[in-house]
Amino acid sequence: LVSEALIYTVSLMGGISIAALSAPNNYFLSLGSALSVGLGLLNGFAVIQWWYPEADMSNLTLPFSLGLFGLFTAYDTQKVLRNAQDLSQENDYDPINEQMGLYLDSVNLFVDIVQ
Hints:
This protein is mostly helical. The protein is 77% helix and 0% strand. It has four helices and no strands. The termini are close together.
C-alpha cells in the first residue's frame, strides 16, 4: 500500500510540475490567495471533525485536499521557477528554502493518498 502511494505521489508531482512549467504567463501564481482560502477551509473541516467526531467528513476532505495540494504543487513550481529566473541584487535566491514548499506538498499528497 505504501509503495503504491509513493508511486502515485511521484506521478502526481511530476505530472503537475510539468503542467505548471508549460503553463503560459505564470497562470498558477495568480491563484495564491484562493489557495490560502482553500487551506483555511480545509482547516475548518478539521476543526468541525474534531468537535463533532460523528460527522464523518473524510468523503469531503480527501478529494478537496488532493485537489488543493495539487494546485499548491503547480503554484510552488511556478514560484520556484520565477524566483530562479529573477536573480537581481535584491533577490537572494536560496534553492533549499525555495524547494520546501514542494517538499511539503509532496508529503501532504502522500499522506492523503495513504489514507
